[in-house]
Specification:
The complex is a heterodimer of chains A (10) and B (215).
Chain A (H helix, E strand, L loop, with lengths): L10
Chain B lengths: L2 H24 L7 H14 L10 H23 L17 H13 L6 H15 L2 H10 L4 H27 L6 H13 L1 H12 L9
Helix pairs in contact in B: 1-3, 1-7, 2-3, 2-5, 4-5, 5-8, 7-8
Classes of the chains: A little secondary structure (10), B mainly alpha (215).
């Protein structure tokens, strides 16, 4: 299960 | 994290520090648009909803707190500080920024990566940030002369998103499946809006004369 790509940008 | 994104974050940090420095030290917000500052406070409030739920890194959380804190304190200074508020030129800062908020919200409800509350508000914050500088640019053209600090603030604010564009290009080529059209297009439009300001800013710097935008 691929965790949703987190929003790692500001 | 790559050098472009780090440079972008530092440039963005520098822009808010320049503005806070100006307002806090000389207790003046002449030439600064409160509307743009309010729009930025909304941008950060709607973009960082995940600050307490998704921990990315200390750096990420720290920077979010700095951007939230600085944007809201600038709005507070310009609205409520007894000395600073006197230098706010509300007769000139008349851009109807609600005409920006509603279309951005509607557009975010139509164009988004996932129709959830947080995702729609995140997308809204990207669209709103792209146009948030408009009241400030309109105010500049009205007030004609601007002081160096305000000019530097706008320059840094425009430059940070330009660095982010290089960051997105870099990530597109180095990370498989890294494709996010929404921030890319919003970020590109945002940077283009600074186009003529950059042109006049560069020429005023080159000829070492006062920065003046054409009426």
């Amino acid at each position: 299960f691929q965790s949703p790509p987190q929003k790692d940008e500001l | 994290m790559n050098i472009f994104r780090f440079a972008g974050d530092m440039t963005h940090l520098a822009s808010v520090l320049v503005l806070l420095l100006k307002i806090h030290t000389i207790k003046s917000c002449a030439g600064v648009s409160l509307k743009t500052q309010e729009l930025y406070a909304i941008v950060f409030a709607t973009r960082y909803l995940d600050i307490f739920t998704d921990f990315i890194s200390l750096y990420n959380t720290f920077m979010k707190l700095v951007f939230l804190g600085s944007s809201f304190s600038i709005v507070w200074y310009m609205r409520s500080h007894k000395i600073v508020r006197r230098s706010y030129d509300k007769d000139q800062d008349t851009f109807r920024h609600y005409f920006l908020i509603v279309p951005c919200l509607l557009l975010a409800m139509i164009i988004n990566e996932k129709f959830t509350f947080r995702e729609v508000l995140w997308t809204f914050s990207l669209f709103l940030e792209a146009v948030a500088i408009l009241p400030q640019l309109v105010l500049l053209q009205r007030t004609r002369n601007i002081d160096n600090l305000t000019g530097q603030y706008i320059f840094l604010l425009g430059a940070y998103r330009a660095f982010y564009i290089f960051n997105w290009i870099y990530r597109y080529f180095t990370e498989p499946h890294y494709v996010h059209w929404i921030p890319w297009i919003a970020g590109l439009l945002q940077t283009l809006l600074y186009g003529d300001f950059f042109y006049y800013y560069f020429h005023s710097w080159k000829n070492n004369k006062k920065l003046q935008l054409p009426a």
